[in-house]
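Case 328 in the screening queue. Each case pairs one protein sequence with one candidate compound; here the compound is thymidine-5'-diphosphate. For every case the pipeline is the same: read the inputs, emit a complex structure as tokens, and attach any notable structural observations.

Predict complex for case 328.
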Amino acid sequence: MRLLVCGGAGFIGSNFVRMRVRDHGDEVVVLDKLTYAGRRENLADVEHVFVHAGIEDPGKVAEAVAGCDAIVNFAAETHVDRSIAEPDAFVTTHAQGTYVLLEAARHAEVRYLQVSTDEVYGSIEEGSFTEASPLQPSSPYSATKTGADLLVASYFHTYALETLICRGSNNYGPYQYPEKLIPLMILNALHADPLPVYGDGQQVRNWLHVEDFGRGIGHVLEHGEPGEVYNVGGPDECPNLEVVQRVIALTGASDELIQYVTDRPGHDRRYSLGSEKVRALGWEAQTHFTEGLERTVDWYRDNPAWWEPIRSGDYRAYYERQYGSQLR
Ligand code: NAD
Ligand code: TYD
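Case 328 output:
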């Protein structure tokens, strides 16, 4: 297959592209705006064609999709805290950008897969969400992702476009930008920097290794039923404080680095996805959290050339804004 992968220079997109080229022999065109989260370095070892553009640019998107069999859209603003501080780009990319991609898919008559998130369902105290659960997003991030999902569904119903939606739970693994919980805690622990835990640290996330999500997306792209949504959840859940304690154990850091900071406004308590539907399609998660976290810590420890430029660049200004005055 020849795929147009939008947002393929980010965390999950680059892992997906690597797996598709290596394991499936796909040809891949990556279209990416290279925001702070997108980096050419993430794809340095993978053969691909690169187009530097935003998904909201109809001309560039139309050129890039020519000759492709499908569009897979990872392109997004992805950090909840940034969506609370500055929602603008979330609206542009998720609403306008998804619209432009859907129009391109419709005119090129190609299959369209939207990469979405468990956060569209909101928080759940007990049990797990199915694909039929109501959509109750809480943050500007999840609300705009939900809007994109609804637009995708409308293109199936209205234009019979072959659409698919994959809703993943919290991903972790190599190449994740260190604003997210796990890479932030790993890099801070390796540097003996404070480990900022929001609120009481008892929020629960359902952890999915990025390669399991990548395989799930590929599987749904090939075998999914057009018009359907597939939840792709991780095999294990874990409260945040326990995640931090596990990182401390794996890095040999001191637990005195833990610092409780002001909770995120509107913080979702627990996410949990039921993945029976994608399992029935033949996908299964292969990596449990214990093994996956150990491998992820090793990857960050072994790849300072990847994170050193991030930690010394614009990220510092973000970090100071987000945590500066709160950390001792
Ligand atoms: P990321 O922030 O690491 O990467 C996002 C990529 O999109 C970057 O390469 C960025 O440059 C690019 N991008 C942003 N705006 C763009 C635009 N307007 N046009 C073109 N490219 C643009 O994100 P990620 O963690 O890899 O997430 C990828 C997708 O998976 C997102 O749609 C996200 O909502 C979804 N998702 C993420 C998680 C998670 O835990 N990270 C879980 C479930 C679903
Ligand atoms: P995050 O990685 O931002 O993913 P999401 O908000 O999409 O689930 O955060 C995961 C959890 O970790 C979430 O409950 C917020 C919490 N968290 C902290 O306690 N401290 C931090 O510094 C960060 C970034 C997150």
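Case 328 observations:
- Residues 5 and 30 are 5 Å apart (CA to CA).
- The first strand starts at residue 2 and ends at 6.
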